Amino acid sequence: MSAATTNQTAEEKLDSVQNRRARITGIVLILLALLVLFVLDVAPGEVATFKLTGPRDAIKVPNLVVPGAFNLVAAALLAFLGMRQFLRGGGRWSSLSIGIGLALVVLAFLVWATAGKSFSLTGMLQATMVRAVPIALGGLAGVLSERVAVINIAIEGMLLAGAFTGALIGSLLGGWIGLAAAVLVGGMFGMILAALVVTFRMDQIIAGVVINLFVLGVTSYVTSQVFAEHRYLNNAQVFRAWKIPFLSDIPVIGPMLFNQNLFVYGALVLVAVATYYLFHTKGGLRARAVGEHPRAADTLGIDVYWTRYLHVTLAGMVAGFGGAWFTLGFVGRFDENMTNGRGFIGLAAMIFGRWHPVGALAAALVFGFADSLQQKLALLNTPIPSEFLAMAPYIATIIVVAGLIGKARPPAADGQPYVKE
Amino acid sequence: MSTSIGKRELNDAARDLLTRTQRGRADFEDLVVVPIFAVIAALILGALIMLATGVDLATIGKSFVALAVGSVGSLNAISETLTAAIPLVLAGLGLGLGFRAGLFNIGAEGQLLMGGTAAAIFAFSFPGLPFPLLMLLSLVAGAVVGAFYASIAGILKATTGAHEVISTIMLNLTSYQILNYLLRQPYIQKEGRADPISKSVPDAGQLPLLLDWVDPNLRLHAGLFLMLIAVAFVWWLLFRSKAGFAFRASGANPDAARYAGMKSGFVIVSAMATAGALAGLAGAAQVQGVLERASPGFSAGIGFDAIALALLGRSHPVGILFAGLLFGGLEAGGRQMQVDAGVSIDLIGIIQALIIVFIAAPLLVRAIFPWGFRKDAKGGSA
């Protein structure tokens, strides 16, 4: 009897938590509606022109002309979604409402910023994709290691190591070997992290911080000690874009998805492979079991240590590939601390994407979008300082981690060392 | 989970009892032997890295001499060492306090930036105030803003359970943008400058130099006393006050602390706020004592080095003081090394990272240096 009562109270508690969350979601949506209505107000007569094709594209599409009234519609929709959440609070609808709501706000923002001017949407989407690559790969590295319950703060260091190795080996032996070396070195740091936290049972966060400091130290040291004198060691060929015939001629998404370099394709393929592996294969199921309940997994004969070593090493290799993007995929030379916190943003993308590869990619695209929007804002002369836009993703991450809107749940055993009995 | 007491738990309990009787020896190994071996191992590995990058043996020898001379070899060197140690120790004390309370605060960098900027803004906003008053109030402004910035993460953790590591990382990244924005505002930006940089702290707001009567180039400032007071205060707070007991109890066993009636929310928020205040003070000391103004990235990674410091000092105020002097010495000696031997100062970063690896993974040090430890010694906690 007492068990039944506890069960009931637990359910009630869950219910009230969900209701509270739905109400907060509703309030946030209504606030966003007010924001769109009063801050992002466009005179109804004005139009925003979005250029969808460039002058040299094969298929021409007329410009997208959006009247200013769009923002009124967006505000109304937001208010409707908010009211609905606030009054009826469907748990299932929460994420969807938030997703639609954010998309509406971004669109309204673009219309507001471009009102009376014209703006190349295609170019921005292409830039978004490019900027999302290291963040997505960093996030994927995070997913791989946290799914086996190893917190990976060292993504930043692994990206930096990949960038450095890519530049050095790429300059000496060519891009492909440089890329392979970057992946290997990334994997090596993954293995070091695994050794520190699995075998030596060091605190996972300390281990990550240490790897970051160490990589930053070594790469900066070699850059100023060796590269400064021998410039030929830091001058790699950049991978050019591969245009995929026909597909790249599709307006808007063609240039974004099918006229990019190896790293963009690689990131997309890796996300797909990781999703299939984690959620549709035996190995992936075992990995997730290790992350959720290592003791149970061990009882069933899964080697917890080996699984952790394997996946953290794989995570390092993914991050090494992502790091090579900075040098072999973008600028061709290494600079001190050139990843500049991208690894931490990747970590944020992982949380935002709720420990799912596709989620991490989607979050990385949002961050990439904010990043490229920040570059373009200067051109559009908007009164919003670009710094506020730049900090928006971080604040959004804090809100998600705090569970104010929807709850991001990490793997149950995340961060805990496992001691075999 | 562990409702039934298994054989393992009993074994652990017995071992605990045994180690407690041999406390003195274990503490000695943990606090003294491991750090010393860690520093030695890190220096040796640093030499190997220099060898690997084509630095010849004579230069390596010269660079270690320069490291020693540059850190303690002259009055100027000692002054530089102490000057570098001041912000490191202040921020490290805050982080150590957080570790004691079971909080892993990575946000010292952001708290330091915000605190330092606040101190600078306060100081040039009230240029009419007389000397000690303006200096002290500016320091307070830095501490308050640092405490406020850190308590964001604390409040989130206490109310929603948001992990402080993620939220402080995000607050760090946010603080860079806030700084970029603030330092371009006409009220704050230095006249006639296009880059983001604040107006200067007036003389009355600066921490006075201590050794300028010997040589005006000696940079040691009154932040030294601030540092020593902070060490004493944190020691008192942690080991002699009720709040400190609650901090330590919550860090050692959150459940037990809660059952004993300690408010976990209060502990989290007040520990974070105190840590933030100390980090803000570190920023203020740096701005008012050395830099005279705030600029983007003026923290120069002090907030991250302070994490290393707190680990090295075993989260004990006195340990952190010594660790800070060591890191300050490495910093000052590293500059000398760069000048004398032409070896990049970034080597210091590697050595610092290696020191922490060895400190935080005592099993590793014991594997490398089997002597100096009892035979049956088991790896301590990091």
What do you see in this structure?
The complex is a heterodimer of chains A (421) and B (382). Chain A is mainly alpha-helical and 421 residues long. Chain A folds into two domains: 2-116; 123-401, Orthogonal Bundle (ABC transporter involved in vitamin B12 uptake, BtuC), CATH 1.10.3470. Helices cover 70% and strands 4% of the residues of chain A. Chain A has helices at residues 2-39, 70-88, 91-114, 121-146, 155-173, 175-199, 204-227, 253-258, 262-280, 282-292, 294-299, 304-331, 342-352, 357-380, 386-401; strands at 47-51, 64-67, 118-120, 241-243, 259-261. A three-stranded mixed beta sheet of chain A has the order 2-1-3. Chain A has a two-stranded antiparallel sheet with strand order 4-5. In chain A, helix 1 runs antiparallel to helix 2, helix 4 (121-146) packs antiparallel against helix 12 (304-331) and helix 14 runs antiparallel to helix 15 (386-401). Chain A is globular. Chain A starts with a helix and ends in a 20-residue tail after the last helix. In chain B, helix 6 runs antiparallel to helix 11 and helix 9 (242-252) crosses helix 11. Chain B has helices at residues 7-21, 23-52, 57-72, 75-100, 108-125, 131-160, 164-182, 223-240, 242-252, 254-259, 264-291, 302-312, 317-341, 346-360, 362-368. With 382 residues, chain B is mainly alpha-helical. The relative contact order of chain B is 0.19. The model of chain B is unreliable at 1-5 and 376-382 (pLDDT under 50). The two termini of chain B are 24 Å apart.
